[in-house]
Amino acid sequence: MIDEDVLIALLSDLIKIDSVNPSLDSKAHGENEIADFLGMFLQKLGLEVNYQKISEKRKNLIAILKGRGGGKTLMLNAHIDTVSGKGMVTPFNPIIKEGRMYGRGAYDMKGGLVSSIMAVHSIIKSKTKLNGDVILALVIDEEFVSLGTEELLKEYSADSAIICEPTDSNIIIAHKGFAWINIVVRGVAAHGSRPNEGIDAIVKAGKLLVELEKLQETEYQLIVHPLLGSPSIHASTIEGGLGLSTYPDYCNIMIERRTLPKENIEDIKNEMSQLLKKIKSNDNDFNATFDITFFRSGLEISENELIVKLVDKARNQTLGISGFTGESYWMDSALLANAGIPTVVIGPNGKGAHASIEYVEISSVKQIAEILKDVIEKYCM
Question: Where are the domains of the chain?
Answer without folding.
Answer: 4-175+299-379, 177-296
